[in-house]
Amino acid sequence: MEKVPPAGEETDTKLSSKDLYPELGSDSTGDEDVNVSVKTDANKITPRAKKDRWSNRVEFQLSLIGLAVGFGNLWRFSYLCQKNGGGTFLFPYLVMLLTLGIPIYYLELLVGKVVQSGPLHALYRLVPSLGGIGLSMIVLIIYTSFYYMLILAYVLYYLFASFQNPPAWGSTFCGVNDSISRQLLPIASQTCLNESSRFFYYLTVLQASPSIEDIGSFNWKLLLLLLTAWIVLYICSFAGIKSTGKVVYVTALLPYVVLTIMFFRAVTLPGAGNGLLELFTPRIESLYSPQVWLEAGGQIFFSLGLGFGGNILLASHLDQNASVFLDAIFVSIVNSLTSIYASIVVFSILGYQSFILGTSVSDIVGGPGLVFIAFASALLEMPLSPLWSVLFFIMMVSLGLDSMFAGVESLVQVAHSLPYLKKLHKSLITGLICILMFLVGCIFTFGNGPYLFQLVDQFSGSFSIFLVAFFELIAISWFYGVEKLITWRSIDYKPTGRQCFKSLRNNRRFRLFSLWLWRSLWIVICPIIMMVVFVGSCISQILSNIEYTRFSNLTEIKTPYPVWASFLGSLITLSTLLPIPIFFCYKFKWRTIPVIFMKIWPQKFSPTIHWRRSDGPLLDELESVSGVETDSN
Known about the structure:
4 strands; two-stranded antiparallel sheet; 633 residues; Amino acid/polyamine transporter I; globular
């Protein structure tokens, strides 16, 4: 009779590589035995919790597209093209896409599907001492959630204001209240429409106070719209990918339907050609400007959502044997083409506006002002303006919701891993997170809320994201090792049914070249480019004063932040970066330097033994036995 060990006792069981991973079969490079510590229970065997999976590959791809295609594709790319040489900007943009965007995007998807965890746990399991990187990503997600949800509340305000003829921002000069309206003249010309949109944005929607130091009045309408935005987000994501996977069929595809409808209308408007000339006319001299290359790299980075952890989270719901290479290529290209497509629509309509007003398109502003002032004003001048306004802002709602799904799921995954929340259902945790985030976001509904919004956006933006993503890249490619994710034996290309790819995959020279290419990109080229972009961004920030735009006496004024606001902004930046060194020091606590480098260092930079494949075997043991890549296909 076989002896059963006591419950919970760890025993050394001798297993072969086939036992560890049966489906490898004859592909294993050896049948050496390995001792694996197995915790047994005589009374009960507790299976691993089954992980939610995408119903099909289309849901995964649409979720990736929804995460990548957001507000920035609509207003930031258009503004950068116009500012940095028109059509010439597309060349540095393409270079950055190939050398920075696609490699890091592919790496994040690869990490997610191999480790089968969100950003917090994935980075810890790969390199325990640098687990703080995942925590920094979670902090960035929190700040980004405030950003997106507040803009979503603004969009809902404009959406509801569109259900009248003309839309609310064109019905009066400023549309705030009688005391302000009596100080202003009625609309006397088309030029006044642009001013009407400006005043409506600042004084009706935002109800902005004169400065960041003036708290101002409480904007209860914006509060209700912010609550509505969080409720809609909860309804879409309460069941995790089981619900968002179905919602993305609408939210990810609807923007393309609306863009296409608006495209055919926009390009036929008078003056549309002037807008397109302004967008695409090349200015070759701009290629010699370092700022153009820096902004091209930044746009690629922010547009694909690199460094936030959302890509890791979405890929973690794939099967470990799935291939993500073609997904990375496909989504990156779709994201870039969408930016160009949206820019054609935006500049066609703005060209029409410049034709009506007799002004230049070059006076266009970037950021939210492009949508809520310039574009909203242009919509007023189009025939059937309420219809086009409703379509446009419905599209904006879809873009905002899509970009939030992965962030909320990441926060839920972190909360559900906490001991005192493990027993709660995920839908309840999702609700608690939405309520908490809404309550904190209420501070942005006061009169100085728009300025606090600018503060959070500026101080939790490029500086923090670049550093977090840089450490992520170093942790994965330098300390964990590229070979453990992708090797010459089993390159991550698996396009079934395509003989040309199959023949390439079986070609040893191609596999070696692929491994060399990815090693070069991840270990050398990408880190160098990221540091150049980061240093350039820092120099640019130092040379230019950090200011916010306030609305006072019916004019926009650039104003330096007060001391307390600058200090608060510095704390926001530190809160995104400090988890990395704090977690690192915690792992090496009370250790002398010789002990750290001789004994502790290798252990803390090795993957944790708790990281298992979805079917059970220990990855570290499997690698040490057979030398087979963990990402086997």
